[in-house]
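User: quick one - fold this with iron/sulfur cluster bound?
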Amino acid sequence: MSLETPRDAEELFRDFAPLGSPAVYTRDRCAEMAGTTRRIRELKAERRAVILAHNYQRPEIFEVADFIGDSLELARQATKVEADVIVFCGVHFMAETAKILNPDRTVLLPDLRAGCSLADSVDADSLEDRRDELRKIYPDLMIASYVNTTAEVKAVSDVCVTSSNAVKVVEKLPSENILFVPDQNLARYVQENTKKNIIAWDGNCYVHHQITPEQIERVRKHLPHVKVLAHPECRHDVLKLADAVLSTSGMVQYARESDAQEFLVVTECGLSDRLLLELPEKTFYKSCKLCAYMKMITLEDTRRALEEMRYPIELHEEVRTGAERALKRMLELS
Ligand code: SF4
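Assistant: Sure. Structure tokens for the protein plus iron/sulfur cluster:
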């Protein structure tokens, strides 16, 4: 990396920073976390529990997790775990997904405030109204919903998709007209990769939607050789500048297998922490875009979740079975 002046560095790091800042993880803080980590491990054994953690979680959560992944990997993992209790270190819709697929197990979310702006942008009643309107024009219309939706929305959908399988799943649906909810950026990305007619909902993820092409170009100017990896929830003008458009786990695989040494990781910044832990020999520049919902999950709350068995996810059986049908169809098609 070659930066010309301190001013360049200041400008560059306003939006993207190199990894490894020790600021938050002081010696005292690490000692405190070590005690909590030990207790979590004891509780996992006592409760026959596993911890599933999304790629956007904090590094200390990765340390206690039994499995780390993106939405699709965690959904798959949730069907395979041998445990009485699943602690889901992610956001609410992800814990719901684990419960949908594991009705007889206890699924805990350590902090109930961990929601998602994208999931909140569509509700089941509005979706049914829109579907009924559109079916007057497109009788074969099917609903494909991103997994970042509530269980109620999944229950009225024909199939679920994730960022890594959306194109593949849409291609396999027996319909030419697809109402795609709720992410408008992912919908546009799918439209560019299929001949089917994609009708987009107008939701977006506030974390990815705020990243601009100017931010990417500024980094590229200083680091022309950097590989830009972008998540499909980013805006179309950002995706056009990427070397690869990938889900979070796709980014991990790409960075692992690529000969390149430096990467600009254009997604929520927690993924970059995972990359630093797994590939310390490479250099990653992370977007300084935090998902406030994901970061609500702390190590201390994870311990308390196991200690006090809080907060269990509950679903009406009718909603659960409807959502399960859409999720299982996705797992079959992908
Ligand atoms: S990063 Fe975006 S889509 Fe993911 S949980 Fe946060 S708000 Fe939702």
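One thing worth noting: The pocket of iron/sulfur cluster is lined by residues 91, 116-118, 148, 205-207, 268, 291, 293-294 (CB under 6 Å).
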